[in-house]
Amino acid sequence: MVSSADIKRYHVFPSFHGPDVRKGLLSHLQNLFERKGITTFKDQEIKRGYTIGPELVQAIRESRISIVVLSKKYASSSWCLDELVEILKCREHHGQMVMLIFYQVDPSDVRKQKGEFGNTFEKTCEGRTEEERQRWIKALAFVATIAGEHSLNWDGEADMIEKFATDVSNKLNVTLSKDFDDMVGLQVHLRKVNSLLRLESDEVKMIGIWGPAGIGKSTIARALYNQLYSSFKLICFMGNLKGYKGIGLDAYDSKLWLQNQLLSKILNQMDMKVHHLGAIKEWLKDQRVLIILDDVDDLEHLEVLAKEPSWFGYGSRIIVTTKDRKILKAHGIEDIYHVDFPSKEEALEILCISAFRQSSVPDGFKELANKVAEFCGDLPLGLSVVGSSLRGESKEEWELQLSRIETNLDRKIEDVLKVGYDRLSMKDQSLFLHIACVFNCRRVDYVTTMLADSNLDVGNTLKTLVVKSLVYVTTDGWIVMHYLLRQLGRQVVALQSGEPGKRQFLVEAEEIRDVLANNTGTGSVIGITFDMSNIGELSISKRAFEGMRNLKFLKFCNGNISMLEDMEYLPHLRLLHWDSYPRRSLPATFQPERLVELHMSSSNLEKLWDGIQPLANLRDINLGHSSNLKEIPNLWKATNLETLTLTYCTSLVEVPSSISNLHKLVQLDASWCSKLQFLPTNINLASLTKVDMKHCSRLRSFPDISSNIETLHVGNTEIEDVPPAVVGRWSRCSWLEIDLSNSDIKRIPDSVISLPCLQTLIVENCTKLESIPSFSSSLMDLNANNCVSLKRVCFALNNPFFNLLFGNCLKLDEEARRRILQQDVNWYGCLPGKEIPAEFPHRATGNSITIPYSYSASSRYRACFLLSTIEDYYEKSISHVRSEGRVQVNIGYHFVRLSSDLSPKTRSEHLFLFGGGLFDEDYISIDADETKGEIVFEFSCQLLGALKDCKECQIMGCGVQILNGEAESSGYSETGGNSSHRRDHEAVHKGRRIWSREEDKTSIILGVVVVFCTFLIIQIFREIGISDP
């Protein structure tokens, strides 16, 4: 059943006080509306009474926009006030647009019901119930915050009325016809394109809309045409430009024909005759026009139809859609909107609209729909075509089609996508196929290095693929090719030969198995990508690669291959990625001098090769989880190696001294090498910034291999001391994180704790640690949970922290507790405690506290609550905050997943600390005299157990301290914290905050609080014992 809110009979519903505006402002406004084709509800035929009748309520609901004209006597009419209440209901429940004119009245008088407006309102309220009065107060207070036109700010009413009528027209044009209802996310696209159009400017602007075939460029362009047509006298949509070559015409006549087509459309003269190429400029140079040139694939078309801005009159807009960004740039178009792929949620919605004619998945189809959406990727065209083909089909048919989609493209999609591929040069096509078959989702520099020995100019060719929308390069340098385009590339390869062993690339698992099992590979094969996850047991011979002498890229993953004999031959590979390699070493004949990446995780290798090999091209070695690996080869000649991963090599005893020549090594990961005892010493690898040795349970010596360490993990080792001489070499570091957790360390040297670059220090479960010396001012995160012997904490006051954790530190002395409680903790903190400390002047039992307060924009808060003993859980959610009474202002949530296998129960009550700004800089501004009232802090906390059972925590008490902006004006808060230093830290960590806010819709604003309760109770109780969150 269709409700009245769904039927829009009127463009505009005006709410006004007749005697104030009917014969003046309103009559002029309605005349402008009529000239613009805007239908306005007129109430002359309705008899006004004590309350608004059903006719007016229906008229409000059946209008697209409500216009409220607030005048001095508006509040003298209970009819007007009831209209206003109903209008705001429609705004809240049906998304109706509301536009305001403040006519000879100040918005502040309306909002606060003061002055002449307020006196009139009070008279209207006489004899009314308090409920009616409060309903009107709330409506007036809210509507006065909506941006609108103020007549007092205009020199003449005529200009204001003209602008307002134009604004209404523009608002109405945003509401699109039903033609575009099925395009998910269209409004977002339109807002972004409109920001480039800058319609308020009188300059002539050309903008581009760029993206791959099938992404929705033409739909966006047509929607813009629909939206903007009433704003231009002359408009034209030129479609079907792709591939136009003027069949049957010579070059000049083709250009004349194109100009003739445009002028005939825009001037609506079908008998136009164009005799020279200056015709468009001649006809349109003094006209404000909107021209959309859709799917342009030839720069010459732009030169013919829109050569330069001087061809068109002031305020004209030319919109060009294309798959080729280079065309836009070559034509001098700088304002380009890139149509990005939809999110996963939007992609699923597109599929559902095509397949089920609804935006959500019907019962029973969720898993199938998700799989189909995944295989179609995010391309709207692909989703729409596949969805339409499955409309009305049974689940069995969906499953059948799903198996086909995995390996074959729908013909319609392929025809669209192949157009872009066919227009590429041979070298561009070659790189396209390399990416489709081997290098999707790899970094640009990685692909460039891998193909350095080819005749491909990766940099320039990749730019060509990007501008033609055949690949996408992320801002941080990753190459991404759409699934359907990858499928297209693989189909192109499949057409190279009916025999898989004679193709360039092998990617289909069944075909690869046959080629390897039957030794049918040839010199044509340059790349193999073998996903073995759906293949049963496979055995290959020692000569399986003998025929593939040109093979460069070999990738076996997600499975096992058995070999009865050692392999006799491997080609000169640049990529060797072989998970679970079955033999003890690589072939003796293998020559690794061309290797760029060696990835052999979970292998049976005991060693790679003998002797010193030429490894100048090698960038990455990953031998992780190779539990039989006993030795690393001599790497003296691997001078370009950047990463060395040895994690979980549980038979490895030492790292060879040859790593001293790896001057480009950036990352060394030897974590969980349980037998590792020896590291080279007294070497300095200048590029090495990340070292991970955690859980090397036999390691005793502190790593001394780089002066530029940024992240160092040596937790759960036998290291007992940190040599000051080693730490002294780290003074040039800009960011340092040190993890010493679960170690037997007894003290932290002053040289560590005072490092100017130290940001994070983790010493949890260091049960012998008794004191922590004075911190460097750079330290922002300290985790000392479960340091059960810790007594003294000697850091300076006023150092702002984000995490400060002392869970289960029951031996802390009073001075240490005082210092911890007086720290400015912006994220969360924890320490044992049995009552709310005196440092929090507002204290209460239970989980809520109400305090009177007059706040400012710079105000801050500190808060805490007290929890009783809780048991060890591994996942936690906490908590939300509400304002007083009617309105929920803000909510803060946090979730943490932790391991609980080592966690003891918390042994006593604990205090949890947090704090920050009351609201952030983007929050709604509030007048100074509206800041008085009460603020309600309300806390709740749940722990989520291993079986996902929720358990409420008992909050025994809470406390709050408000830090006024005035108190910080000298640079210090009430607790003495240096506010400028704190703001610097907040700027650095702004991305780590979680804020949630909502406009206060009550008539009395009681306070604005952005309270973010991120008290990681279980984290803190990991950090009370759980070792690995």
From TrEMBL:
It comes from the Eukaryota. It is an enzyme of class 3 (hydrolase). Keywords: Hydrolase, Leucine-rich repeat, Membrane, NAD, Plant defense, Repeat, Transmembrane, Transmembrane helix. GO terms for biological process: defense response; signal transduction. One of its GO terms (molecular function) is ADP binding. Gene3D superfamilies: Helical domain of apoptotic protease-activating factors, P-loop containing nucleotide triphosphate hydrolases, Ribonuclease Inhibitor, Toll/interleukin-1 receptor homology (TIR) domain. SMART domains: AAA, TIR. It catalyses: NAD(+) + H2O = ADP-D-ribose + nicotinamide + H(+). Residues 8-172 form the TIR domain. Its EC number is 3.2.2.6. The chain crosses the membrane at residues 1002-1021. Signal peptide: none annotated. This is ADP-ribosyl cyclase/cyclic ADP-ribose hydrolase. It comes from Brassica carinata (Ethiopian mustard).
